């Protein structure tokens, strides 16, 4: 045993995992006290599987682990947490019908005589929430009423309660605002000072350079690098991750932007979306930027009929014809698709196969008299597996066994089979590695060359600036401005994102009663 392994808080040796095929092979890794170890690699490389093995959610096929010098074989997540090994996963472990406070202390609710002490619960929740910058949220708020970003911060706060020796953060900033990210980084620094060891999983290489001392890179289930973070720049890490070089430019190919295909006028719903109007042309990618809570997802849901608008119209085609969309069924019937940001909760049947998930939106083509043609379903799925480069053992593999990026490709593949003319993408690359992102960017380019009209919501400004022809900025529910390619700057886009809130706050200030001298 090496000196490093002997002094490690956590060590894994020869760890392997096989499902339908090997996903991890012979992983040897150590984690030192108070260290931040970055773990990165493409989707499907084995990052989440390794972290779930450490966190007690998955049993390894081969290998062994030690924690604080003792054999470590967690039989469950609860057992790992009892030892002080916590994991914040991409898939949130929260109950939407319970309050923030109840979710934070669900396993240890303060009580007296068998009755929950609401006063103590609220006080403890406020303290826990303050650590991650959630001071402005009432702890009695139902988790289901929060956006994904705030839910992520609640999940992080939950895992910081009590003794924590090892904290695994799986893509923790994917849905956070810049302020929330800074709060998280401050908390990481405090945790390190307490001696907490952190495994930080992310595809955002600039973040890894800020927080990590060492980096471990997985590729195709193998550990290809464990080195000091300072030894590598972003370009070198990308090459290690994907086995090839990727530039910071995407060539969408020759395409023709035509007449408007989607026209939205005066769309409104309560205070979430306010009088929004825009149009998207054939062959165009129209990006929608804005802060969390600006109304981006709510706008896409209105267009798709998942929510019903209070006012406004949606028109399709050239010339524009107003259509009635009161449900997703109406939207799909008119050739509109929505690739949701919540692939786990809204986009997939995790316990079903790839074939069944892709077939879900294409039943007329593979069924007859109520019976599914299994051969047709498999052929349909294989077509998308090949086209989307979905890493899998084939159409029969369960979606739950795929990485997050490959699950996202399954969702997209389902809609591609329907040949919709308008596609709405909500955070299409959230939690997806660099290589897979460029695969999806190339796919978007191919769709525009087919004359499709694309609307893309993303929290990553650089992503929108890379792929979009125009970018509309939502702020406090309103479309503040629309920028043309080559005429925008990152500063202008950010200023527009804040503008609606500044105007709203100014109006509230003017309307507020004042004490007279």
Automatic annotation (TrEMBL):
CDD domains: ABC_Carb_Monos_I, ABC_Carb_Monos_II
Location in the cell: Cell inner membrane; Cell membrane
GO cellular component assignments: plasma membrane
Domain of life, per lineage: Bacteria
SUPFAM superfamilies hit by this protein: P-loop containing nucleoside triphosphate hydrolases (SSF52540)
Database matches in SMART domains: AAA
InterPro entries from the UniProt entry: AAA+_ATPase, ABC_carbohydrate_import_ATPase, ABC_transporter-like_ATP-bd, ABC_transporter-like_CS, P-loop_NTPase
Biological-process GO terms, alphabetical: monosaccharide transmembrane transport
GO terms assigned for molecular function: ATP binding; ATP hydrolysis activity
Keywords of the record: ATP-binding, Cell membrane, Membrane, Nucleotide-binding, Repeat, Sugar transport, Translocase, Transport
Main location: membrane
Recorded topology in the membrane: Peripheral membrane protein
Family annotation (Pfam families): ABC_tran
Domain ABC transporter: 3-245, 257-501
Designated name of the protein: Sugar ABC transporter ATP-binding protein
Species of origin: Pseudomonas laurylsulfativorans
